[in-house]
Amino acid sequence: MKNLLKAWPNDRRDRRAGHEPPLAEDAARRLALFADIERSLSGWFWATDPAGCLSYISPAACERFSIPSQALIGQPFSSLFGTDPDNPGERSDRPLQFQIGAHARVNDVIVRLAPARCGVGARPAWWALSGTPKLDETGAFGGYRGTARDVTQEYERRIEDSRLAEFDSLTGLANRHRITRRIEQTLAAFKGRQRAATLMMLDLDRFKHVNDTLGHPAGDELLRQVSQRLLKVVGDHGEIGRHGGDEFQILLPDQEDRGKLGELANKIIAIVSQPYRIDDNHVVIGISLGMAIAPYDGAEREGIVRAADLALYAAKHGGRGQFRFYSVDLKDEKEERHLLEEALREAIAAVETAEDDWDRTQLGLVYQPVVRTDDHTVVGFEALMRWEHPQRGAIGPAVFIPVAEDTGMILQLGAWALRRACADAAAWAHPLRIAINVSAIQFAHPDFPGVVADALAETGLDPDRLELELTESVFMGEAEATDNAFKALKQLGVRLALDDFGTGYSSLSYLRAAPFDKLKVDRSFVDSCTLSDQNSAKIIAAIIGLADALGMETTVEGVEAFDQHDLVCAKGARFIQGFLYSPPLEQAVVLAQMQSEALRIQPHGPQRHRPERRSVFRRIGVIHADHRYEALLRNLSATGARIEGLVGVPVGTGLVLDLGAGQLAVVTVSRSEDAVIGVEFETPLVSDGAGGLVTRHRASAYALAAAARMVSASTPQFLEVEVRKRA
Question: Residue ranges per domain, the chain?
Answer without folding.
Answer: 41-155, 167-331, 364-593, 614-720
